Amino acid sequence: MSKLAQETFASDDIELVVLPEIGARWHRLRAFGQDLLRTPKDLNEHVRDTFFWGAYPMAPWAGRVDATTLDVANRKVTFEPNFPDGTAIHGQVYARPWAVEDDGFFRITAGGDSWPWPYAVTMDVDVHDTVMRVDYTVTNLSDAPMPAGVGVHPWWLKPLDVAIHATGVLTPNWTTPAEPEPVSGEFDLRRLRPMPSDVDATWADVTQPPVELSWPGLGVRATLRTEAPAVYIVAASPSHLPAVALEAQTNAPQTIRRLLNGERGALLLLEPEGVLSLGVELSFERTGVEARR
């Protein structure tokens, strides 16, 4: 594969590297000189193992849906399997080339295929001082109402302490119930503590800020804030990977089932030219612990 283009955004304290040709994904994120994402040495690893490096956008839906053909919003939609478990996961734009339209502004148009509605997705990046802000939008370019969801899927390096400020949980992600249950046991993460292993669940009824992250060995802490009509926090902590996925998204898993059944957490229906937005802000601070070298 030819050399991949990189776009870098930096302040004195933060550095973010984006790969426009592979889903406008975050390849590397450093705070105070410390790597925080699972970042491959070879950029092409993002292509070979698409779902398990860096951070990538999810649209026009986020999370798993069953791989099948369904009538949705008066259109026939085919969800092609793209994951080892046979599901259709994380939308269409996570690995496709995006255009760089301005400093920090990326755009892609897609749809009109197995997803019958054409649409556009944008990402707008701003890095200053100790804050990184990334805004995503999905715009319906079709002439009929389109279901839409958007999210971002980062893999944060372990060891990691996590707090998820939410009172409800949907679990497991591959077959979530219609309504969340009260958080308890390993799913009660309202206080900062080590992320439990082999969790794969979604938190609902979140408060602001939804997530706090701490890398005690690196002396770095981050606070995640979001802006969206609704926010769900998905976490996956496979024990065989040196990273934890903590995803902010506008829909819950199995979102097509939720839409068809009138359940909470479904994709939103956008009118023609309608826009769905998700803003994600990460603010970083030093914790005063000596960073590992």
Query: Strand percentage, roughly?
Result: over 45%
SSE class: mainly beta
Q: Based on the structure given, which CATH architecture is correct?
A: Distorted Sandwich
> Rounded to an integer, what's the Rg over CA atoms?
18 Å
Main beta sheet, described?
Answer: 14 strands, antiparallel
**Spans of at least 5 consecutive residues with low confidence:** none
Number of strands: 24
First-residue to last-residue Cα separation: 33 Å
Name of the top-level CATH class: Mainly Beta
Please count the helical segments: 2
How many domains make up the 3D coordinates? 1
**Overall pLDDT:** 96
Q: Which word captures the global form?
A: globular
What order do the helices and strands follow?
A: EEEEHEEEEEEEEEEEEEEEEEEHEE
* Helical residues, percent: under 10%
CATH topology: Beta-galactosidase, Chain A, domain 5
Write structural notes for this entry.
- This protein has 293 residues and is mainly beta.
- It has a single domain (7-286), classed as Beta-galactosidase, Chain A, domain 5, CATH 2.70.98.
- It contains 2 helices and 24 strands.
- Strands 5, 10, 11, 12, 13, 15, 16, 17, 18, 19, 20, 21, 22 and 24 form a 14-stranded antiparallel sheet that branches.
- Strand 1 (7-10) and strand 2 (14-19) form a beta hairpin.
- The model has no long low-confidence stretch (mean pLDDT 96).
How would you briefly describe this protein structure?
By secondary structure, the protein is mainly beta.
